[in-house]
Amino acid sequence: MKLSIALSGGAARGVFHLGFLDVLLKEGVEIKEISGSSAGAIVAGAIACKIPLKDIFEIVKSKEFKSIFKFSLKTGLFKIDLNSTILDKFFLYDDLSKSDIPLFICVTDFQEEKALYLNAGDPKKIIPASCAIYPFFEPIVYKDKILVDGGYKDNLPSSPLNGNILGINVVPNCKIEKLTHKNIIIKVSQMLIRNTINYEKIKYLIEPQEICKIRAFSFNDLDECYGLGKKYAFNWLRQL
Question: What is the C-alpha separation between 96 and 10, in angstroms, rounded?
Fold first, then answer.
């Protein structure tokens, strides 16, 4: 089976992608091309370089990974340390165009207010830019463009892909139980993110409702999220 794959953003929930795709690859699914926004961009880059996904999962859980997020009050609460050597472990080459599998990273051009689907350029700038969700992270300036999180304009970037597309969206429609200030902000953010998605090209869609119980901005649920991805992958393969 050969698929093109689009991976959504979703912060720590992006670990679901690792579990799901680890199963698919071990079951012999061939990835024709791949795209990603935000957390999905990190996973897409690793897959495009054929890095074992279990290795990426262990890196994400490490203290070294958390150390790349530096406190800053310049143009965001944090900035991503673009000089950290750990970024080299997520993408093995010095240019996106050198990946083993065709790769598209979705970023948002802040000034032009449009999505860019980049398949060439510096991965140590472009992939972090796709994760630069403001106001949490500073925008990243690259080639005279101000780049921010790809999820602002296309959180499930199927546009550059062709063939049979599998889309994995870890920002499903999560209902809220109580009308609290925090829950309303989360729900509004979710609606805005989901409204960026074009489902027309996607043949197979994975939107795991169970992931709603997993906190997007916490490192405490990573093992559960990874296991959930594996569970959904096995179930999906059985239903084909």
Answer: 22
HSE toward the beta carbon, residue 112, CA cutoff 13 A: 10
Q: Which of 85-89, 102-106, 233-237 has the lowest mean pLDDT?
A: 85-89
Q: Which of helix, strand or coil describes residue 155?
A: coil
Residue 214, amino acid? I
CA pair distance 190, 193, nearest whole angstrom: 5
Predicted model pTM? 0.93
Q: End-to-end CA distance of the chain, in Å?
A: 11
C-alpha torsion sign, points 171, 134, 192, 126? negative
Catalytic site includes residue 84: no
Do the beta carbons of residue 130 and residue 91 sit within 8 Å?
no
Residue 152 φ/ψ, nearest 5 degrees: -65, -30
What's the pLDDT score for residue 170? 97
Catalytic residue among 4, 35, 37, 149: 149
Kindly tell me the burial class for residue 5, based on how many C-beta atoms sit within 10 Å of its own C-beta (0-12, 13-18, 19 or more): buried
Q: Is the peptide bond before 135 cis (omega within 30 degrees of 0)?
A: yes
38 is catalytic: yes
Catalytic residue among 38, 99, 130, 158: 38
Amino acid at 76: G
Most confident of 42-51, 57-66, 178-187: 42-51
